[in-house]
Amino acid sequence: MSKNIVWHETNVTKEKRILLKKHKSYVLWFTGLSGSGKSTLANALESKLYELGHHTYLLDGDNIRHGLNKDLGFDKDSRVENIRRIGEVAKLFVDSGSIVLTAFISPFITDRQIVRSLVQENEFIEIFVDTPLVVCEQRDPKGLYKKVRDGELKNFTGVDIEYEKPLNPEIYIENSQTSIDENIQIILTYLKQKDLIK
Amino acid sequence: MSKNIVWHETNVTKEKRILLKKHKSYVLWFTGLSGSGKSTLANALESKLYELGHHTYLLDGDNIRHGLNKDLGFDKDSRVENIRRIGEVAKLFVDSGSIVLTAFISPFITDRQIVRSLVQENEFIEIFVDTPLVVCEQRDPKGLYKKVRDGELKNFTGVDIEYEKPLNPEIYIENSQTSIDENIQIILTYLKQKDLIK
Fold it and tell me: I need a labelling partner for A186 at 20 to 30 A (CA). Which of A72, A113, B126, B177 fits?
């Protein structure tokens, strides 16, 4: 029994994992309309962070909606539960010492606030990708806005459901005005200022 | 638009994350009765892997039941959903390039089989911690067996619900006969043979 207690004292902690990875761990939470460019920007940023030797992971529709959250629909309750679970998984990744990027519309202030409250104050960085609805509709990378206009898709954020803009995001990206490179630079500058990257 | 496509081509993949971490990623799935010593062993192994410079994360009751799965009870359906979600999260950690250890009773063969099928064939290592019920009851580290005997706790694995032993686990630990050090050595030997650790 005393042997068990000794082992428990040597548990691997978040602090130890951070030491191994040589950088802080936190959530980069991208939020914005469908077609705003969240995923493209998150992917580009992850590539840049990887080049700089950081341990990252990206949560997005591809790896969440077909896996952990495949039991959820798109009604209000399901959308809330969707974001809750993503927040809890993001917290686990922060605890594991990684930088986790998330790219989900996450339209409700309350839900984003709940995720923020799961981690420490300096571990949640909200990145508001602010692209005008008209631009998102023109891009329509997944053809979803067309489906909405054709009546094939309901409860769509920005059309039927309001997107609640972040009131005070850590990083603000006006995505119709600037290039991906410029936007990445804005984020990297913030992360450097806060001593969050090497 | 062409710029976006270029960015997508440089996505950070599982292979790239594995390159950065310099070891393979996989699940070490500990299964066994309550009090069998799963958590103690998983913790001890994680410490050892950390010492050897591996990037690990441990999923257990402490970080799952109070977070991601706090909406779940202990009825049959909830227990199945509990393991399903843990499996999906484990898959995400494998995709992130980490070695993920899990310590849950996970009493049903079908559920463990589902988790196994989520990852590649060589990425799921089932570790059966086989401790006789009578020994688990004597240890009773959380006082749960006493509660069961006093009628305060129902549906308890090994007492009311059958624990379905793994038929062909990758690693078999007879935990009443050997010390923690010896058991860790058994696991490390297996991982070395399979070229899964540095």
Answer: A113
The span from the CA of A196 to the CA of B15, in Å, is 25
Q: What does A100-151 look like in DSSP terms, one character per residue? A: EEEE-----HHHHHHHHHHS-GGGEEEEEEE--HHHHHHH-TTSHHHHHHTT
ipTM comes to 0.93
Measured between CB atoms, does A65 come within 8 Å of chain B? no
Nearest to residue A120, comparing CAs of A91, A100, A96, A98? A91
The pTM for the full model equals 0.94
Q: Searching chain A, which residue's CA lies closest to the CA of residue B14?
A: A57
Distance CA B65, CA B71 (A): 8
Dump the DSSP string for B31-95. Answer: E--TTSSHHHHHHHHHHHHHHTT--EEEEEHHHIIIIITTT--SSHHHHHHHHHHHHHHHHHHHH
Among A36, A98, A106, A117, the active-site one is A106
Contact B92 A57 (CB under 8 A): yes
Inter-chain touch B43–A93, beta carbons under 8 Å: no
A58: nearest CA in chain B?
A: B96
Q: Which among A4, A16, A50 has CB closest to B40?
A: A4
Active-site residue B25, yes or no? no
* Tens digits of residue pLDDT in A149-167: 999 998 899 998 999 999 9
Question: Cβ–Cβ contacts within 10 Å for residue B15, how many?
Answer: 8
From chain A, pick out residues whose CB is under 8 angstroms from the CB of B48. none
B59 in contact with chain A, both atoms CB, cutoff 8 A: yes
Closest CA to A84 of B70, B62, B83, B84: B70
Torsions phi, psi of A127, nearest 5? -115, 110
CB-based contact A179 B3, cutoff 8 Å: yes
- What does the pLDDT look like over A91-110, one tens digit per residue? 999 999 999 999 999 999 99
Contact in structure between A174 and A130 (CB atoms under 8 Å) = yes
Indicate yes or no: CB of B55 within 8 angstroms of CB of A21.
yes
